[in-house]
Amino acid sequence: MIKVALDKVRNEVDAEAKKVGRPVRLMAVSKLHPYEAVLEAYDAGQRLFGENHVQEVEEKFPTARPSGMELHMIGHLQGNKVKKIVPLVDAIDSVDSLKLMEKIASCSSSIGKRMPVLLEVNTSGEEAKSGFLSDEELFTAMEASLSLPSIHIYGLMTVGPLGGDDEKTRLAFRKLVSLKKEAMGKFPSLDLSVLSMGMSGDWPIAIEEGSTMVRIGTAIFGEREYPK
Ligand SMILES: *Cc1c(COP(=O)(O)O)cnc(C)c1O
After folding, report:
1. pLDDT at 227 over 90
2. Predicted TM-score (pTM) above 0.90
3. pLDDT of residue 226
4. Which of 17, 29, 210, 212 fits 177 for a cystine, CB–CB 3.0-4.6 Å?
5. CA 199 to ligand 1: nearest atom
6. Which residues line ligand 1 (CB under 6 A)?
């Protein structure tokens, strides 16, 4: 069944990407679904997966993953979990402070890894959301990354506003695009090619506005059952 849902989502995303003339990667967000579900998606051709809890990654994924399976951390990361997650993932897409980035740099460097990261921006101003709230802090982190060889910033990430108001959602995604443009002017040597935005409820708007990577959970794996 996952294959059916995955194929449908992939076809829809590909069609939307074709419309805007830009490639869009599909990340399957497998949080709170068992590893069997991940493997089912993998067998159906999916390679990129996202998880948002360190402990779940540790418990769910074997250290030797199937060939080509790519796993990104996309959830808020506490400083004391960095050491655990760095060896386990291929990228950290939810870097929301300079302090966190420095910690990732130091842990990555100590195991000889260069960690690809996305800087997460809080584009909606919602308090419960993580992400850089101030442009100044975001730019400071970008500047600092230039002297952290074990960090490779490869773009920006945001989570759209709650509530499904299309206009608000669109404005949040536009904010990320305009920050990217501003940052490219300030830091021409930075690689900001990836914009990770769009989830099950808002990905078409995200692609229209400039997304190059959508993170889709529910539409592929079904509803999540949150632990009580
Ligand atoms: C859970 C999650 C998603 C996927 O959400 P769906 O609405 O199930 O598609 C995407 N991004 C992040 C950061 C998430 O935590």
Report:
1. no
2. yes
3. 84
4. 210
5. 9
6. 29, 31, 52, 74-75, 159, 199-201, 215-219
pLDDT the model gives residue 98: 98
For the beta carbon of residue 146, count every other beta carbon within 10 angstroms: 12
Protein residue with its CA nearest to atom 7 in ligand 1 = 200
Most informative mutation of 29, 51, 203 for ligand 1 (most atoms within 8 A of CB): 29
| Spatial contact of 128 and 163, defined as CB atoms under 8 Å apart | no
- Percentage of residues in the chain with pLDDT exceeding 90? 96
How far apart are the C-alpha atoms of 4 and 32, rounded to whole Å? 20
* Contact (Cβ atoms closer than 8 angstroms) between residue 76 and residue 92: no
Say how far apart CA 207 and CA 135 lie, in whole Å.
Answer: 23
Handedness of CA 59, 64, 65, 68 (dihedral sign): positive
Residue with tokens 């959970």: 217
pLDDT averaged over the chain? 97
Decide: 23 and 211 in contact? Cβ < 8 Å: no
**Half-sphere exposure of residue 22, counting CA atoms within 13 Å on the CB side?**
14
